[in-house]
Amino acid sequence: MLVIALCKGRFLAPSLDLLTEAGICFPEDIASSRKLIFNSEDHSFRAVLVKPADVPTYVEYGAADMGIAGRDVILESRADVLQPLDLKFGYCKIAVAGANGISEGAPPNTSRPTIRVATKYPRITMDYYNSRGIPVEIIPLSGSIELAPLIGLADRIVDLVETGRTLKDNGLEIVEVIAESSARLLINRAGYQTKRDEVLHLIQALEKVIR
Q: 19 Cβ partners below 8 Å, 6+ apart?
């Protein structure tokens, strides 16, 4: 039996649809259930439901053989996992955003010596600014990131952007795109060796669906 970690939330339905098309069906209504562990109809797979940011950890440490998560959470986690497939859903951008008309090299609008950046991706943000030699102070937030520049908490934000509508509605715009993100299949490195046939069979089945 292969264990696959699935994200709670917006990725769950498309993940289940993709698995169903690949021949992996779960008999219960996972989305509405309070349970966290589900077996497939043929008992060849076990799905565990976890928070999106935790999927890479479950896979890296072998609690799950594989998982489905956004590239954004994989980059932020720095998990040492295999990523054999882009699953072609959940497209968005990890982007720096700020007030309309601001440029990335512009200094903060206060006497602070460094730019303040609010984000739920502190590692991605620090890597981005370090690579450009720009001093930065990271303000970790877990939600409503767009609010930070509006009330003076931060000069910029780094967040996921899908359509850009929320940014526009709050007087913000993309300054620079750091990376593209979409749903990825993650594989545990050790599991890829010990359960190679089963893992490759799933990869091939998913490849046929997403072509």
A: 4, 25, 26, 45
CB 92 within 8 A of CB 160: yes
CA distance 67 to 185: 6
Residue 149 and residue 100 in contact, taking contact as beta carbons nearer than 8 Å: no
Give the amino acid at 157. I
Domains of the chain, earliest start first: 2-90+182-210 (3.40.190.10), 92-181 (3.40.190.10)
* DSSP state letter for 108: P
pLDDT digits (tens, 9 = 90+) for 26-70: 877 888 888 899 999 999 999 999 999 999 999 999 999 999 999
- Does residue 73 contact residue 55 with C-beta atoms inside 8 Å? yes
| Burial class of residue 164 (count of CB atoms within 10 Å of its CB; 0-12, 13-18, 19+) | middle
pLDDT tens readout for residues 118-135? 999 999 999 999 999 999
Instruction: Classify 96 as helix, strand or coil.
Output: strand
